[in-house]
Amino acid sequence: QVELAESGGGWVQAGGSLRLTCTATGSTSRRYAMGWFRQTPGKDREFVAAFRQSGSMEYYADSVKGRFTISRDSAKTTMFLQMNSLKPEDTAVYFCAADSTLILSSLTNAGAWDYWGQGTQVTVSS
Q1: Mean of the pLDDT values across residues 106-120?
Q2: Given this model, what pLDDT does residue 57 score?
Q3: Dihedral sign, CA of 6, 9, 14, 17?
Q4: Which residues pair with 13 in a beta bridge?
Q5: Model confidence over 52-99: pLDDT tens digits?
Q6: Parallel, antiparallel, or unpaired: how do β-strands 2-7 and 33-39 relate?
Q7: Closest C-alpha among 119, 99, 93, 121 to residue 111
Q8: How far apart are CA 68 and CA 44, in angstroms?
Q9: Exposed, middle or buried by CB within 10 Å (0-12, 13-18, 19+), for 120?
């Protein structure tokens, strides 16, 4: 069991930057895939970026590639999402997710992830 908590959301003008943080507590001795998803009203939760359990390789949605960077600390209990060149279409609630058994083919599928944070709102104005 792991608990996740996001922070760092807020309001920013288009072209600006925000940094989200996800802190994991609980059974953090296990190896987890960790990732970020986002959701807007009436839409499914959308994959943004993630790490697999095994290593440092990063995976990104095409819509954020080159603008967002995912990273985590050496203990792998804190994960970050640096968001640059933000666009109004990036406005969403951003969720942190974790899973200990995820396979690569399920990385972008929100339904495959076991643990979720409560979400943090990111609003980008034009």
Answers
A1: 96
A2: 85
A3: negative
A4: 125
A5: 887 678 999 999 999 999 999 888 789 999 999 999 999 999 999 999
A6: unpaired
A7: 99
A8: 20
A9: buried
